[in-house]
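Notebook, p. 212. Picked up where the previous page left off. The plan for this session was modest: take the two constructs that came back from the sequencing core last week, fold each one, and keep the raw output in the notebook itself so nobody has to go hunting through shared drives later. Recording the first one now, exactly as returned: residue sequence, then the structure token string.
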Amino acid sequence: MHQPTNCPKCEGRMVTGFIVDIGYGAVAASNWQEGEPKKSFWTGVKQVKSQQHEITTWRCERCGFLESYAA
């Protein structure tokens, strides 16, 4: 995955980061889940760990634009 160096909106500098996911007793980086969401009685939505990809996000220091990728 190629990190964007300049913002596509304003040409500002892009910096690497991640979106925080806060759950019951846990804090983690967000993941992308393949497929449509299916309800789960216990967790809200069913998850298939093998179909998940961690999300990396870049933020423009000038305008705040976010660009995310799930490698």
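Okay, moving on. Second construct, recorded in the same format:
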Amino acid sequence: MAKLEPRGRKVKILATVGPASREPEMLRKLLMAGVDAFRVNMSHGEHADHARAIEAIRALEKEFARPIAILADLQGPKLRVGSFKDGSAVIRHGSRFTLDRDVTPGDESRVQLPHPELFEVLHKGQRLLINDGKLRLRVVEAGHDRIVCTAEVGGVISDRKGVNVPDALIPIPALTDKDRRDLAFAIQHGADWIGLSFVQRPEDVAEARRLMGGYGALCAKIEKPAAVKQLDAILELSDGVMVARGDLGVELNPEEVPPLQKRIVETARSVGKPVIVATQMLESMIESPAPTRAEVSDVANAVYDGADAVMLSAETAAGQWPVEAVTIMSRIAQEVERDPGYKGRIRFHQTIPERTTADALAHACMTIADTVSISAIVVFTGSGATARRVARERPSTPMMVLTPSTSTARRVALLWGAHAIMTRDIGSFEEMIGKGKRMALRNGFAEAGSKLIALAGVPFGTPGATNLLHVVTVNGDELKRHKAGDTD
């Protein structure tokens, strides 16, 4: 069986699968370079392509005995203009431009807007952003059949370009018919996380949860200003969130995005739910073998903020240097985490434990690891809830998550500091201590004299019963037995 050493970093890397990376050998290279989880982008490609990629990832998981998370990212509704008689037109800066219901191909003065719901919510003074914000229109007159705008930023507009509406809550569901088909496919093929796009309100998350029927974990993508306003409620219904900076950067002023990123990361951490920072992290590496200094700083800042994971999009999906992109991202994260000031930075935002035994013990793990030389925190969990509590505290030592649940092991692959290991459940205190030591030795987290923290619940195997913390020391005899080839 092939072996992957511990990553040597706590932040995780999520890489998007695409034409440049969906072949089994490339996926293998990406995993060895440092990928912890793969994103399947349902906006592109056919189900057959995604099925082959998922099958290849699961084969790698078996080959390396390393749980790998798969996130199926749903497209969500896309607002677009209609078509033009010449394929495109030029909107002059400062000119008037009308969006209407007329299906006649457009020109430099008008085009169809095939979304009747927008005519009901747009008002004078609101903005329309075309083609990722390259064209910016301001509504000067809004009616039932037409929306007259002035072009604050003009330019070339062409067929079916996307429309962003940052100033209005759009009365359309987050899940289209395509998304429902894609969601059914993702569940059928065993995706561990579902990425929900176009979230505007908590009800969008609740609807997705209903359709998931209790399967998998739900990651709400925060990419709309409306979602930011209801972040707490959306987080309460989600298993994690993604800072989707692409659309956020279109719909907000650029200078608003960095502090908002920090706020989303802090809010997610405060409730113990994973948070992913995504979009354009190493964008230049789509074509270049090396990133810009600004991109390196961008990735480093996300790590300093305490994000659970950082994501590569087109860099690995369609770029010319996918392995190099993963390698440099891993190196950036390792260098940041070696910084003596890193611990203080990620704990600058204090997480207050809830008044529960489980939270108190998770907080104690961090305090003990700061006080005593601890090699690893060994968490025994069935659901992953205890691991999330410990990760929320951002302890200075690695966390081994021992679980009998395949789905839990895969889901925590996106959790900060977690090294998930599939193993049989424990039935006694002695078994807990023995297994914790063996797994730490076997996976490179301990040696003779190492101290470990073991965290579990009694009675063993009872969900939500975390009530036991024990500090143990690995002795020389245990190391000898391990080298002689012990078995679990």
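Notes on construct two before I forget. The CA atoms of residues 78 and 167 lie 16 Å apart.
Flagging for discussion at group meeting.
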